[in-house]
Write a structure and sequence with these properties.
Elements lengths: L2 H26 L4 H28 L6 H14 L3 H32 L7 E5 L2 E5 L9 E4 L9 E5 L2 E4 L1 H4 L5 E3 L4 E2 L4 E2 L4 E5 L7 H10 L7 H32 L2 H14 L3 H20 L7 H6 L24 E2 L6 H11 L25 H11 L4 E4 L2 E4 L8 E2 L1
Helix pairs in contact: 1-2, 1-4, 2-3, 2-4, 3-4, 3-8, 4-9, 7-8, 7-9
Length: about 425
């Protein structure tokens, strides 16, 4: 919980403790009702002073019929007719609901922010050979930027110097890193992995890919579902109707019967029970909670309207690697041909793939290299390995790949 939420929780707990003390005092003593009113005002204001302030502030801005106004009218009315415990109860329960709502929304926001952690804190701009760290928003088109291994690309641009691999999984879902060199485009939000890159910014931060995606996520609550749009229109007319109905219920029967306390009490009950706050708040909160819950599982939903549309989906088509799978390969089984053991096949594969950084090559544990190969050069290991079985082997400098053996055959899966 945030500091503000912790303070609200503390206020609720203190208000509950004070209410219990005042309630017991009322049962054990016989004092003037104004004394009890003053005592009950202590837990009432402890729990809900901010509700009264917000209600007054909204009224001054012309926003009269909202949940703050309804709570203020209902609780102050209960105090006026002498129902002090009910007044405190309603305020405490309302604030408890607000606390749960704020905690749920905060958790959803953190899930979304964690999923879309694309924005680097700083960018390194190189001017006349001097490196300067600036905010991504301060980068201009045409600036030369330096990105070291492990750093995020701050803005979109084109590589001017250096060779590296870039992890684009956060944006594209592609688990295999992309090789980049001079003339290749870089997308903001991706991660430089292996080499140092110098590149020229082609867009300002606000126009870059990462900023556009973050803006889309932050404004996801603006894409309202049809049910949310209906509730917004519904509350606009329903809330004033409830307030007017409560006023008529308090006035007309009271003028006829003369029993003001009973009918005002009934009107306040009607006002609280008919309050649309739960309906108006719960539906948007449910959608936002759904978006946040999906984000915690690594699923980004652009808005409530898209979440609602999923209810009508009959068939889903997924990209496999990086979406349904992690893209991390492992050797699950070895089926050696006659005359070879599993350890021998793994040893030969590990020998040939020792210098390769291909994702499939990395799945072969280098510790599997047989003892007789340890300490020998890469070319010697490959020559000796090839002499032990008739394999087609491709040696391309730094990268070597063990292809499908011709005879006998060994299958890696």
């Amino acid at each position: 919980m945030t500091r503000k939420q912790k303070k609200l929780l503390l206020r609720i707990l203190i208000a509950c403790g004070l209410f219990a003390a005042v309630f017991v005092t009322e049962k054990l003593t016989d004092l003037n009702r104004f004394v009890y009113l003053g005592l009950y005002l202590i837990p009432y204001l402890t729990a809900g002073y901010d509700v009264l302030l917000k209600s007054a502030r909204n009224i001054s801005k012309g926003q009269v019929f909202d949940e703050m106004f309804l709570m203020a009218v209902a609780t102050i009315g209960a105090l006026v007719i002498g129902e002090y415990p009910e007044s405190v109860f309603v305020m405490v329960f309302f604030q408890t609901g607000e606390l749960f709502q704020n905690v749920a929304v905060g958790k959803s926001r953190r899930s979304i922010s964690g999923l879309m952690d694309l924005r680097p804190d700083t960018a390194t701009v190189v001017k006349d050979g001097i490196e300067e760290e600036v905010l991504p928003e301060e980068v201009c088109v045409g600036d030369t930027l330096l990105v070291r291994p492990g750093e995020k690309i701050p803005v979109d641009g084109v590589v001017s110097r250096g060779v590296s691999t870039v992890d684009t999984a956060a944006l594209t879902g592609e688990s295999v890193p992309a090789d980049v060199g001079p003339g290749d485009a870089l997308i903001s939000g991706t991660v430089n992995m292996t080499g140092t890159l110098y590149y020229t910014a082609s867009k300002e931060y606000g126009e870059s890919t990462a900023a556009k995606i973050l803006e889309l996520v932050e404004n996801s609550s603006m894409n309202k579902a049809k049910s949310e749009q209906f509730l917004t229109r519904f509350a606009k007319y329903y809330t004033p109707t409830v307030v007017i109905g409560a006023a008529l219920l308090a006035l007309i029967p009271s003028l006829i019967t003369g029993d003001w306390k009973d009918w005002v009490y009934r009107a306040l009950i009607f006002l609280v029970v008919s309050c649309p706050c739960a309906l108006v708040i719960s539906v948007p909160l449910s959608f936002f909670g759904g978006i946040g819950g999906a984000s915690s599982k690594g699923i980004l939903i652009k808005g409530a309207n898209y979440l609602e549309a999923l209810a009508d989906v009959k068939t889903a088509v997924f990209d496999k690697t990086g979406t349904l799978t992690t893209g991390s390969f492992t050797v699950t089984d070895v089926a050696p041909a006659e005359g070879f053991t599993k350890e021998q096949v793994l040893s030969l594969a590990a020998c040939a793939e020792y210098y390769s950084d291909h994702p499939i090559a990395l799945s072969v544990d280098p510790s599997r290299i047989a003892v007789q190969f340890i300490g020998k050069s890469h070319s010697d290991r490959c020559a000796e390995a090839l002499s032990q079985t008739s394999c087609r082997h491709l040696d391309s400098g730094e990268r070597s790949h063990l292809w499908v053996p011709l005879e006998p055959r060994a299958q890696l899966s």
